[in-house]
Amino acid sequence: MDATAEVGEVTIDRFLGGRVEAVQPGRGHHRSGLEAVLLGASVSSDAAGTLIDLGAGVGVAGLCAAARSPALRVVLAEREAELAALAERALALPANAGIHGRVVTAVVDVTAPERDRLAAGLAREAADIVVTNPPFDLAGSGTASPETGRRRAHVLEGGFEAWLRAAAWLLRPGGTLILIARASTLPELLRAAEGRFGDLAVLPIHPRPALPAERVILRGAKGLAGPLKLLPGLVLHGPTGSQFAPPLEAILRNGAGLADIHETWQG
User: Fold this and answer.
1) b/e for 67-97, b at 16 or more Cβ within 10 A?
2) Mean pLDDT of all residues in the chain?
3) Please, which pLDDT band fits residue 266 given cuts at 50, 70 and 90?
4) How many Cβ atoms are within 10 Å of 143's Cβ, its own excluded?
5) For 7-47, what is each residue's pLDDT tens digit?
6) What residue numbers bound the domain in which 132 lies?
7) What does the pLDDT look like over 199-229, one tens digit per residue?
8) Which CATH number goes with the domain that contains 123?
9) Domains in the chain: how many in total?
10) What are the two backbone dihedrals, phi and then psi, of residue 30, each rounded to the nearest 5 degrees?
11) Is the pLDDT of residue 251 over 80?
């Protein structure tokens, strides 16, 4: 049976002004959007080597990174076989023809033992970059969705420890981790990074100029030292209205990189 049959109705969604198209479940599962696009935009357009999108879902972050960075080979690592199958379907779409040969999928749970990662085609210290958008809600922190697919995508069982351990296993020494998470989980995230990643930079993401940050993007390097840097915040919207600020529109519609619109992200 086709694994995608388990997700029911799907939609084809356009990102980066149509440079990327993703196949997403219509309901019952997490649907990627702003966070995944920002994660893809956080990777430099001249990045090269292997990037692994850890917990990729239908692959939006990895697909966007591949479209913006032509020298990257991308692996979409996802535990839900039906979501990985949707990523495979997306790679066959005409809009994604330019990245098809550089992107592959791997069905594997990021918290699984090493033997399972190896069996899925992942290798120790094989990645130059790992990007990841872990489930945003720590277990026990709120009311979980009654829909299994959404609950598994949104609730982080066991905290960040297993995810950052897996990222460190995948990355070569000096390789880059980039992660997006809720701002409220930053203390747990920094604890999990300790001893694994250094030269950390934290970019707060504010919904409006006068509101506290709701998301953060964390960048770090495996095994390197350096002080924590708290960067100037990125603001999504103006004081009123639902329209994205012009710099965000440049990312969402025109495929600009995060460093293009927020120069302190240069690393």
Assistant:
1) bbbeebbbbbbbbbebbbbbbbbbbeeebbe
2) 90
3) confident
4) 6
5) 578 999 999 999 999 999 977 667 878 999 999 999 999 99
6) 3-265
7) 999 999 999 999 999 999 999 999 999 899 9
8) 3.40.50.150
9) 1
10) -60, 140
11) yes
**Considering Cα of 190, then 194, then 196, then 200, what sign does the dihedral take?**
positive
Q: Secondary structure of the chain in the HEC alphabet?
A: CCHHHHHCCEEEEEEHHHCEEEEEECCCCCCCCHHHHHHHHCCCCCCEEEEEEECCCCCHHHHHHHHHCCEEEEEEEECCHHHHHHHHHHHCCHHHCCCHHHEEEEECCCCCCHHHHHHCCCCCCCEEEEEECCCCEECCCCCCCCCHHHHHHHEECCCCHHHHHHHHHHEEEEEEEEEEEEHHHHHHHHHHHCCCEEEEEEEEEECCCCCCCCEEEEEEEECCCCCCEECCCEECECCCCCCECHHHHHHHHHCCCHHHHCHHHCC
The reported pLDDT for the residue numbered 150 is 46
Q: What digits encode the pLDDT tens for the residues 94-137?
A: 999 999 899 999 999 988 899 999 999 999 999 999 999 998 75
Say how far residue 122 (Cα) sits from the centre of its chain.
Answer: 17
Instruction: Say what the pLDDT of residue 140 is.
Output: 55
Tokens (6 digits) for 130: 């790992």
Nearest to 72 by CA among 176, 149, 169, 146: 176
